[in-house]
Design brief:
Blueprint: H1 40-44, E1 47-49, E2 53-54, E3 67-70, E4 75-82, E5 87-94, E6 101-103, E7 116-124, E8 129-137
Parallel strand pairs: 2-8
Antiparallel strand pairs: 1-3, 3-6, 4-5, 4-7, 7-8
Length: about 140
Amino acid sequence: ISVPWQNGDKIMIESSKLFNNGDSWTLDMSVFAKARNVTDFDLNQIKVVPNPYIVQSGFGGGSDKQIRFTHLPTKCQIYVYTVSGEFVEHIMHDDPVDGNEFWNLKNGRGQDVAPGLYIYTVETLNKMKKIGKFAIVR
């Protein structure tokens, strides 16, 4: 797994123990971006922001309309449906560092979705599922 570090990025490590001359320590960064099993607690942290999404708000910068799914597990599938159960979009999330995924509010055919109430499901690799809702308002 590669971590998206840039030249000049730094890590600050603070110790709760004072070191003496000759002391040494080892830092194992291999677990930093290691995937782990998702729990119910993890799923309950998932949110959609902003919710409700107000079309004229300009959230997302300029003319880009988007919402953000937050606190996602490393790998998961996001499915979006209308409140009547019509499939709207499928989003794959696979990022060992960033638990955010943005959606441009377009369906699978590239058309803007209509204002209304939407249901989403987040499905994890270990077959757990989170169901939530969000609204799009003109």
